[in-house]
Write a structure and sequence with these properties.
Elements (H helix, E strand, L loop, with lengths): L3 H28 L7 H5 L3 E9 L10 H6 L3 H10 L3 E6 L16 H15 L3 E6 L3 H9 L1 H17 L8 E4 L9 H18 L4 E4 L6 H5 L9 E7 L3 H4 L22 H9 L4 H13 L3 H18 L2 E7 L8 H17 L3 E4 L9 E2 L6 E2 L1 H6 L20
Helix pairs in contact: 1-8, 6-7, 7-8, 11-12, 13-14
Length: 400
């Protein structure tokens, strides 16, 4: 009898071989009929905003009530997004509320009808939509370890892409999976290739793909391009998290102890704050941030590496998440960081989508019908809002 460790190794090896073979086959299938992304289509991804906590990031499937889906983001929000100068939205969607409990595919029901309504609402306003699949961590962990979950997810994508196949491909893009959280890059390459090929069987829309873990710069640079010309590559940029996530209560336990972290950073402007932190490691991390001297040039260096990778592989790239958690960040420093990232992206013709519209990183505060626009952030994004006689004058919300 094979011992348990060897049996696990054999199962893992078999799975990798199967996924490798699958990757080769689906990559060939995906190549056929996949036209390169045109300049006009890619231009739709130049300036965008994420729509969070609407069709995703809601606690429990029961949180997606008809009232929530109807009222969270309204026609007035769509008009405001358009007036602020954005060209597209990234619509985060949790797949689980649309997946049958006992079979593959999507529920042909009220939830899908609401998603359909939302997509068409933006398209009617001449805004492009990235339909980004944005599930909970548990779903992504299951994808990494269980081929049956991969098959079911592929069926979901086939049904979803088929349902929206009639939407203008100049206005609708498909994001395969937000921040995959895969430890095994080889497995992620196989899974992603399978999903791209599945979408391609159903629709000719451009697919947005990404690296294996958090879609960071490092993850993208380690990614082997898929064999499909109608694809855009994506990364997220929140570096350095010491600044962008200061005060956040999720992720690193270190972040919640931070506040008033300055940007740009120098050894001198972080030393007093570092002295107040509990523990040697937090002090080291903040002092390291100061000595790394994060500034426009430091950010530009990182993004230049992405541009070099894209040039080498002759592919198009977008950054569909970047932003600063605003609870404790200095508003002026936050605007400076956003400016520096946006300028570096645009210098290399990399499309961008800021995180997010009305959440904790948002460009607006307040409920639907009472939105307050953060004018400093809109300026940092280089946008020039179109005036509207019905819209109140914009101003920064309290606390930035």
């Amino acid at each position: 009898m094979v011992s348990t460790p060897n049996r696990r190794r054999h199962t893992s090896t078999s799975m990798r071989i199967a996924l490798g073979a699958c990757m080769a086959v689906v990559s060939l299938a995906a190549t056929a009929g996949a036209a390169p992304v045109s300049d006009a289509r890619f231009a739709q991804l130049e300036r965008g905003i994420n729509l969070s906590h609407w069709f995703a990031q809601v606690r429990g499937a029961t949180g997606y009530t008809p009232e929530h889906l109807l009222r969270h983001t309204t026609v007035d929000d769509v008009a405001l997004i358009k007036r602020l100068g954005f060209r597209h939205v990234r619509l985060n969607i949790d797949p689980l509320p649309m997946m049958n409990a006992d079979a593959a595919g999507i529920v042909r029901g009220a939830h899908l009808a609401q998603l359909d309504r939302a997509v068409r609402m933006f398209v009617a306003a001449d805004l492009a939509v990235i339909m980004d699949v944005h599930p909970h961590h548990d779903f992504k962990r299951a994808l990494e370890r269980d081929d049956r979950v991969v098959e079911r997810f592929a069926e979901f994508w086939r049904d979803l892409a088929s349902h929206f196949a009639g939407v203008d491909p100049e206005r609708l893009f498909y994001g395969v999976l937000n921040e995959p959280e895969f430890e095994d890059g080889y497995r992620w390459s196989g899974v992603q290739a399978k999903l791209v090929a599945t979408i391609r069987q159903a629709a000719g829309h451009t697919v947005i793909v990404t690296g294996r873990r958090w879609s960071a710069v490092d993850d993208l640079l380690a990614l082997e391009p898929v064999a499909d010309g109608n694809v855009v590559y994506n990364f997220h940029f929140y570096a350095p998290s010491v600044f962008t996530h200061q005060g956040a209560a999720w992720g690193s336990a270190f972040w919640r102890h931070l506040g008033a972290v300055p940007y740009p950073s120098t050894p001198e402007n972080v030393s007093a704050l570092a002295a107040t932190l509990p523990g040697h490691l937090p002090r080291l991390w903040l002092l390291r941030y100061g000595h790394e001297r994060w500034s426009a040039s430091r950010i530009a260096m990182e993004i230049a590496q992405v541009a070099a990778w894209a040039t080498k592989h002759n592919v198009r790239v977008t950054c569909n998440e970047f932003g600063v958690y605003r609870a404790l960040a200095d508003p002026a420093d936050r605007a400076t960081w956003i400016t520096d990232v946006r300028v570096a992206l645009e210098r290399h013709r990399i499309g961008w989508t800021m995180w997010d519209y009305a959440g904790d990183f948002g460009v607006v505060a307040g409920p639907p019908g009472g939105r307050i626009v953060d004018a400093a952030v809109i300026s940092a994004l280089g946008l020039q809002p179109t005036a509207s006689p019905q819209e109140p004058a914009t101003s920064s919300p309290p606390g930035g």
